[in-house]
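Researcher: Good morning. I'm working through a list of sequences from a screen, and I'd like to move beyond sequence-only analysis. For each chain I'm collecting a predicted structure so we can compare shapes side by side. This is the next one on the list. No need for commentary yet; just the structure.
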Amino acid sequence: MKPEIELQMGREAWCLLIALSLLWGGSFFFAAYAVREVPPLTLVLARVGLAAIGLLGFARLAGLRLPWDIKSWRSFFIMGVLNNCIPFILIFWGQIYIASGLAAIFNATTPLFTVVLVHFLASDERLTMARIFGVVCGIAGVAIMIGPELLGTIGENAIAQIAVLAAALSYGFASIFGRRFAHQPPVVTAAGQVTASSIVLLPIVIFFEPLSLQTLPGISTSAAVLALALLCTALAYVLFFRVLKLAGATNVSLVTFLIPVSAIALGVVVLDEKIEFIHIAGMAFIATGLAAIDGRLVIWLRKKL
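Model: Good morning. Structure tokens for this chain:
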């Protein structure tokens, strides 16, 4: 990876990261609607399974071929477990016992885990004070946007909270492990990952939610599941692996800071919700954190000094 990419993301990477945050921010709308008729684990399986079908079909039409050697598929399975199976299951389970807003705050610790892990596991993305400052600002911004009152519930249902933190840690490992796919087209990597995830999740769903596989949801719910699978998973992971290739593990993990911003923006546009002062304050903290991690804040301060 080039040193300048490590310091500062380019325009393409930023645009893709914002688009990714919009897709994953929108996933909350579709998931909240679909989960009324589809049990959680089955919804996860449908999400990755339909995404796999869509990506495999697109790859074939585009003339792209997935590798079929054992080494490649071992990597796909590891990536699928780290980036889909473990975090999806832990977050779904955790949200049964804790508020979704608090879960989002814990999920926003992903860049913190990533920036620490990548310092020890990679040689080209080092831990700096600017990055630490940026991560702390980003987490603070997410906490402010979602509501500081939720911080008072930290410590309650501790196991559920630890589960969501473990999901964030898993995402951190996934961002670092995913660097090995840089030589592949993002569509191929995304297709391999969600296909492997589907294979792992199928027996889990058969064991825990067997009856859910025998009933079909309504048309509107099916449409929500398709949007969740094809837009918020298939397309989103193509963007994810592209940003990972362009800007590295730490920068792609910043999407967890942008997801609450995107979710609120979509709420304003789609649901006619209002932006409150705490949202603006939180966005300011997040913007400062992103600038610090990206390197722009450091460059600006050096010029001023």
